[in-house]
Design brief:
CATH architecture of one domain: Roll
CATH topology of one domain: Pdz3 Domain
CATH class of one domain: Mainly Beta
Structural class: alpha+beta
Distance between the termini: 29 Å
Number of helices: 8
Largest sheet: 7 strands, antiparallel
């Protein structure tokens, strides 16, 4: 069983989802070459051109006469209407139009609405670089002794809190064995940079908070993702492919809401957009037409021949989690068993005459499992009245409970099954 997959409830697995892995695809020319044979000269082309030009000139003359006559009649009709005291204000389709964008009309007249949105939000979107030292450093003093990953984040408070994706900063999480050799750097659009501290992370929802200490930080305005409608403007701001393309802005629409996307045995509720999201955009802002952050860009579907399938975590889902990460460093109330283990597959169960389940390799001290009497070498086969065969079964069962709840736990020990009472502790 030593070759089986190791699982630790307290240490999240490294994501295997394609968080927008870069793929460069050679364009395919769908047009066939067409041989064009020379044709005999003809005066028909000149004749047609002359006819068309004549038609345009004639139309202009006739149109001018008609317009003068119509204009005169219109003035007379307007004078009569105004004399009768009837308003001549024109409304488009009976709908009163007003600027609800929160962006000034001056900004809109100077450029496109997307340009105004970018001016408002871009200063709050930062670049994040995660540097993890390898076991051996290079004697030449270059970067060959470090691995580097880059992503994006959004400043959400004056005192330097930044929200991002967990997978962008996961190696800096103290629960990760690589945390002691990992540093975080943050790069602001105004060219300032600072070392960042990991505050808290939630791998289940792919969210994290880090913090920097700099004055006069620009703060992003958060919107309301429950008010989104399919088809409205969506603007993605971040650092695709890393800091070389920092502050990139892409625009599209909200393609769909409440998309259920499963990755790494986790199902997330996401916003779908066709605004381009690429590697490095993770943790950046998805923004509405009012310049408000309504999502955290997370993943894209990267398959040959598929474009415009990007996804973001709704800000209304992210905000409560981010608040708890700032206050406590973790999400309170989540149930925790307190075990590490290996799956006993059907083949191994047959080979060693054991039941399928989770072979316990370690028990966390003072956890619910330890207090229930679960020991190393036990095989967990049932929890809360449901059969347990793989790790995913445990995660699905835990979703229905909170810290402090007590359930029956069935383990296999020394050739017999035992039922123990397990009270979930709190996952921190």
């Amino acid at each position: 069983m030593d070759n089986q997959y190791n699982w630790n409830e307290n240490e999240p697995e490294k994501s295997e989802i394609i968080y927008s892995n870069a793929r460069f695809i050679e364009p395919i020319n769908i047009y066939e070459a067409i041989e064009v044979k020379p044709k005999k000269k003809s005066n028909i082309k000149a004749y047609i051109s002359l006819v068309l030009a004549t038609s345009v000139i004639t139309s202009g003359v006739v149109g001018g006469a008609l317009y003068a006559k119509f204009s005169s009649e219109l003035k007379e009709q307007t004078a009569l209407i105004q004399k009768a005291g009837i308003s001549t204000e024109v409304k488009s389709s009976g709908v009163t139009q007003k600027n609800t964008s929160g962006i000034t009309n001056t900004a809109l007249t100077k450029g496109s609405p997307v340009s105004a949105i970018a001016k408002k939000v871009s200063p709050s979107v930062v670049g994040i670089r995660m540097l993890t030292a390898s076991a051996q450093y290079s004697i030449f003093g270059d970067d060959s002794g470090q691995s580097k990953a880059e992503g994006s984040g959004v400043i959400i408070s004056e005192d330097g809190y930044i929200m991002t994706n967990y997978h962008v900063v996961e190696y800096a999480d103290p629960k990760n064995r690589m945390s002691k050799s990992t540093t975080l750097e943050v790069f602001l659009p105004d060219k300032r940079q600072a070392k960042a501290k990991f505050i808290g992370g939630d791998s289940k929802n792919d969210l994290a908070v880090i913090k920097i200490d700099l004055p006069d930080l620009p703060i992003a305005e958060l919107g309301d993702s429950t008010q989104l409608e399919v088809g409205e403007t969506a603007v993605a701001i971040g650092n695709p492919l890393g800091m070389d393309f920092a502050g990139s802005v892409t625009a599209g629409v909200i393609s769909a809401l409440n998309r259920k996307v499963t990755a790494d045995d986790k199902t997330l509720n996401l916003i779908q957009t066709d605004a381009a999201i690429n590697p490095g955009n993770s943790g950046g802002a998805l923004v509405n037409s009012q310049g408000q952050v309504i999502g955290i860009n997370t993943i894209k579907i990267s398959v040959t021949g598929v474009e415009g399938l990007g996804f973001a975590i709704p800000i209304n889902d992210a905000k409560p989690i981010v608040d708890q990460l700032i206050l406590f460093g973790y999400v309170k109330g989540r149930p925790f068993i307190g075990i590490s283990g290996k799956e006993i597959t059907e083949v191994l169960a047959y080979q060693y005459d054991l039941p399928q389940g989770i072979y316990i390799t370690d028990v966390t001290a003072a956890s619910g499992a330890a207090k229930a009497g679960i020991k190393r070498g036990d095989i967990l086969v049932g929890l809360a009245g449901k059969e347990v065969k793989v790790m995913k079964d445990l995660d699905e069962i835990k979703k229905n409970y909170k810290a402090g709840d007590t359930v029956d736990t069935i383990i296999y020990r020394d050739g017999q099954e035992l039922t123990l009472k397990l009270t979930f502790s709190e996952e921190k």
